[in-house]
Every structure is written in structure tokens, then in C-alpha cells.
Specification:
Number of helices: 13
Catalytic activity: deamido-NAD(+) + NH4(+) + ATP = AMP + diphosphate + NAD(+) + H(+)
Largest sheet: 4 strands, parallel
Domain NAD/GMP synthase: 9-268
Strand order of the largest sheet: 3-2-1-4
Bound molecules: nicotinic acid adenine dinucleotide, adenosine-5'-triphosphate
InterPro entries: NAD/GMP_synthase (IPR022310), NAD_synthase (IPR003694), Rossmann-like_a/b/a_fold (IPR014729)
Protein name: NH(3)-dependent NAD(+) synthetase
Keywords: ATP-binding, Ligase, NAD, Nucleotide-binding
Helix content: 55-70%
């Protein structure tokens, strides 16, 4: 499926889900990253500007440029974008959980607590205003379990849940191009395309470093193995034919597929997503 076709299919599914659930409005955590930016554009296309509520939730490791990018996106879309800091609630959790967590709230527990603080804030707004929370996860992250259970896995519907991260970027480029061709400004700021994807849950965190693989390679492995049912040896052989080292490539493919299998439990707890056959 072409990126713009994917974009339109995800947007239509989002609109159908929200209306079908009896809601008019949605709330989205705007991180300044690509996933939440594209979901916000889709929501505006599906539901209209006044029905989309963005919230910036900066934490201890959020960069100033993330806030700038989130604000620029909201301004381009003409949507409301409130700011709710998670620093105070996170510090409270550091205080109350430190002893019970072995002296201090650190490492993975500290990272995931930030994602869960954001979820608590977003769900409070959902309950207070009757806005449905949109999930911003994609299929690459879901395969690898690269998300926080009961944190950023929250939400009623995941418009990007059926597409891999490289296609999220392709859809975003296509949607911006459509705007420019119509004489409008592309809604997603240029900086969102060029900065490395990051969860910003610890200092200098970058997705591809944490995952141990770049998204382009990860997605090629997942599409070949998961979508097209190719055997691990066949998937590795394609990459080796391009000049990659044989043993390391086999280990990489096996590792990705083992992690995908091990994270089935997390995918089972994630929200529904568009059912379109994106990769046939
Ligand atoms: N088989 C099984 N069946 C049912 N539950 C199972 C389970 N195995 C583990 N669990 C449970 O799952 C827990 C581990 O899951 P979880 O708490 O989520 O933690 P975990 O998967 O270990 O960590 C989440 C990772 O995602 C990253 N992240 C978070 C947020 C956003 C993004 C992003 O860029 O989008 C990335 C974060 O930096 C971290 O590396 C275990 O403590 C256990 O309670
Ligand atoms: N500082 C933040 N302000 C508001 N929402 C946030 C913030 N950080 C994370 N979120 C929410 O949690 C989701 C997962 O965030 P994270 O940055 O960890 O992952 P991501 O997959 O790289 O997403 P994105 O590409 O949107 O940044 C985001 O898409 C967003 O909805």
C-alpha cells in the first residue's frame, strides 16, 4: 500500500472508532516526536480542529526542542495544546518509592514511572472532559515491546498500531506533501523529521540505541518474517547478500524474532488498531 493510502486508511479508521464509541473529542500527548505528531494530524483530518486536544507533558529529561516542536505542530494544526508538567508527580513517586525500590527509584522503574505519570494525567483529562485518549504506538515498537505497560500503551485506539515506524515517517512525508501541493503549510515541522526518535525517559536516550538496531533494518526483518512469513534464514540471507556479516546478521534476525515472541503478552494488552491489510 502507498503511504498516502495508508494514511487515509488509518485516518478513516480513527474517525470510525471514535464516532462508533459515541465520542466526538480526543486527547493526545504531544511529545514533539513523529508518532504523536502524525496521530494529531490524523485526528484533525478525521474529527476537525476543535475536537482534538493536545497536551504537552514535559518531564525531567524532556528537551526544550521537543516542546518547541510540539507547540509548532499544534500551531500549524490550529489545535489547543495545554502543558501539564509531570516533574512534581514524578518527584513524589521518587520520594515515596525510593525505599521500597531498594534505596532509590532508578533505571527501568524510573523510566517507566515517567510514562505512567503521563498516562495518569492524560486519563484524568479524558475522564474530566469526556475526551477519548488516542494511543500513539506503532507496529515496530509493539513487536519489540518498546513501550511501557500501563504507560504509553494506554489509549482507546492506536491509529498507527498496524504500521511500522519507517512507514510512519513515509506517511508523514506524504501528508506534508499533500498539504504543500494544496498550497498549505505541511503540518509536521521539519525538525520532527530530522531528529533521532527518543523516548526522553533518561539522559541522551535514543530509540535506536536502546533497541540495539536501526528502524530501517528492524522493519525489513519484521515485514519479511512477520508479514510475509519468510523463514529466519531467508530473511538473514537477503541482508547478507547486501554485504552484511553472516553470523552477526543471523544472530540479529534471531534476536529480533525472539524479542517479538517474548513480547506477545504486551501486544495482547495494547489497544485495537486499523485492520487494513497494509503489508499484503
Ligand atoms: N510473559 C508475561 N506476561 C505478563 N506480564 C509480563 C510477562 N513478562 C513480563 N511481564 C510484566 O511486564 C513488565 C515489564 O513491562 P514494562 O513495565 O512495560 O517494562 P519493560 O518492557 O521492561 O520496559 C519498557 C521499555 O520501553 C521503553 N519505552 C518506554 C516508553 C516509551 C517508549 C517509546 O519510545 O515509545 C519506550 C523503556 O525505555 C523501556 O526500555 C514486567 O515487570 C512484568 O510485570
Ligand atoms: N513530553 C511529552 N509530552 C506529551 N506526551 C508525551 C511526552 N513524552 C511522551 N509522550 C506520549 O507518550 C507517547 C510515547 O512517547 P515516546 O516519546 O516515549 O515514544 P515515541 O514512540 O518516540 O513517540 P513520539 O514519536 O510521539 O515521540 C508519545 O507519542 C506521546 O503521546
Amino acid at each position: 500500500m502507498e503511504p498516502l493510502e495508508m494514511y487515509d486508511a488509518c485516518t478513516a479508521a480513527l474517525g470510525d472508532f471514535v464516532r462508533g464509541a459515541g465520542f466526538t473529542d480526543v486527547v493526545i500527548g504531544l511529545s514533539g516526536g513523529m508518532d504523536s505528531s502524525l496521530v494529531a494530524v490524523m485526528a484533525v483530518d478525521a474529527l476537525g480542529t476543535d475536537s482534538v486536544h493536545g497536551v504537552m507533558l514535559p518531564g525531567p529529561y524532556s528537551s526544550e526542542s521537543s516542546l518547541t516542536d510540539a507547540r509548532a505542530l499544534a500551531a500549524n494544526l490550529g489545535i489547543a495544546a495545554d502543558t501539564v508538567s509531570i516533574c512534581e508527580p514524578f518527584e513524589a513517586f521518587e520520594t515515596v518509592l525510593g525505599r521500597a525500590c531498594g534505596g532509590e527509584l532508578a533505571g527501568l522503574a524510573a523510566e517507566n514511572t515517567q510514562a505512567r505519570c503521563r498516562m495518569v494525567c492524560l486519563m484524568a483529562l479524558s475522564n474530566a472532559h469526556g475526551w477519548l485518549l488516542l494511543n500513539t504506538g506503532n507496529k515496530s515498537e509493539a513487536a519489540m515491546g518498546y513501550s511501557t505497560l500501563y504507560g504509553d500503551t494506554a489509549g482507546a485506539f492506536a491509529p498507527l498500531g498496524g504500521v511500522y515506524k519507517t512507514d510512519v515517517f513515509a506517511m508523514a512525508r506524504a501528508r506534508n506533501r499533500r498539504a504543500v501541493e494544496a498550497g498549505d503549510v505541511g503540518p509536521i515541522p521539519v525538525n520532527v523529521f530530522v531528529k533521532p526518535p527518543s523516548a526522553e525517559l533518561s539522559p541522551d536516550q535514543e530509540d535506536e540505541k536502546s533497541l540495539g538496531i536501526d528502524y530501517a533494518t528492524l522493519d525489513r526483518i519484521l515485514v519479511a518474517a512477520v508479514e510475509h512469513g519468510r523463514a529466519p534464514e531467508a530473511v538473514a540471507a537477503v541482508l547478507v547478500a547486501e554485504g552484511r556479516e553472516t553470523e552477526a546478521t543471523r544472530r540479529l534476525v534471531d534476536d529480533v524474532l525472539a524479542r517479538t515472541a517474548a513480547n506477545a503478552f504486551k501486544r495482547a494488552l495494547e489497544p485495537p488498531y486499523p485492520a487494513a491489510a497494509f503489508y499484503e
